[in-house]
Amino acid sequence: MSGRDYLGEFEHIIVLALLRLDDRAYGVTVRQEIEFRTNREVSIGAVYATLDRLETKGFVKSHRGDPTPERGGRSKRFFRVTAKGVAAVNRTQRALQRMTEGLDLIRTYS
Amino acid sequence: MTSQADFLQPPRPAVWLVNLFTSAEEAESILGDLLEEYFHLVSKSGVAFARNWYWRQTVKTIAHLVGAGFRVAPWSTTAAAVGGFLLLRFVSGLPERAIFAVLHRYQVFEHHFNGYVFFATNGIAIGHVIVSMFVGCIVALAAKGREMVATMTLGLVLGALAGAAMLAWVARTGDASSLWMRPWYFADSVAIVMGGAIVRTRRSAAMLRRSNA
To answer: What angle in degrees, to the nearest 10, is found between the helix axes of B47-72 and A44-57?
Structure first.
């Protein structure tokens, strides 16, 4: 298994946000979901750069919605996680769990 | 004069910058998302806050897009930048040669001494900027789709070299009096990026015309 089968930290967060948002996942909702849950300001460019990378790897797929007036007549780009993406997020989660097993992180390092 | 409707819109230079660094398809999603959140922030927190937010997002977004653009095609971007560097080395002597040829041909030194001094100093500097912009255009034409990444890479390399050379010279001579000329040292880098911006803007306009036709 190569390093490419695992997700990077921000890729991991993005895929989890897509899974949470389900069919409502596009740039704005993904960015807001991450800001809301992680308390860190994220740029829309970082979100799209990561989503494009994930799409190249086959972990997510995108399709265009209809243009809307509140977006100046521009369309939304919706994203969803593929089966390969779900497998990658599971693998990454398991690796993280194995790495943290037996560590009392709060008591030891806080 | 800025109308009320214009004032409520996101800052135009920021929108132009995002357009400059994105493909037409990317711009559709990114500018749409930014506009949607911007109007939401205008109604929630006011125009000033929303405009600040838009600028912050623009700067961070461009930084990410430049990084991503380089990571996607590092070799072709580097090749375009190296080609531009070599081309610049080849053509950088042209302004001096051309200006002095004209000055000697028309004997400007004898008839218009002030004009001679102007062209022999500022004229050459302006010539360098024009040549650099031309090289920026060539690099952008070669790096189709990554015009800004390629020209910024070349501009940053030249800027770093100019900065290092300037510091080395000051360290060796101990004479910092010529530092007032500093903006000129970086003018070539800026001109190269401007060349990239010109090509990118023209390509975007041509694509828009084609899609509207």
So the answer is: 30
Report chain A's mean pLDDT, rounded to a whole number. 91
- Judging contacts by C-beta atoms under 8 Å, the chain A residues touching residue B26 are 48
In 3-state terms chain B splits into helix, strand, coil percentages (rounded to 5) of 90, 0, 10
Coil, strand, or helix at residue A66? strand
Gap between the terminal Cα atoms of chain A: 34
Is the domain defined by A3-109 classed in CATH 1.10.10.10? yes
**Could you tell me the residue ranges of all domains in chain A?**
3-109
CB–CB of B29 and A46 under 8 A?
no
> Is any Cβ of chain A less than 8 angstroms from the Cβ of B17?
no
Regions of chain B where pLDDT drops below 50: none
Tens-digit pLDDT profile for residues A47-70: 999 999 999 999 999 999 988 888
pLDDT at residue B184, as a whole number: 74
Q: Pairing relation of β-strands A60-68 and A74-81?
A: antiparallel
Per residue in A86-107, pLDDT (tens digit) is 999 999 999 999 998 888 777 6
- Cβ neighbors of B13 (< 8 A, separation 6 or more) are none
Burial class (CB in 10 A: 0-12, 13-18, 19+), A45: buried
- Asked if the Cβ–Cβ distance from B64 to A46 is below 8 Å, we say yes
What CA–CA distance (Å, rounded) separates A46 from B133? 30
Provide the pLDDT for residue B3: 64
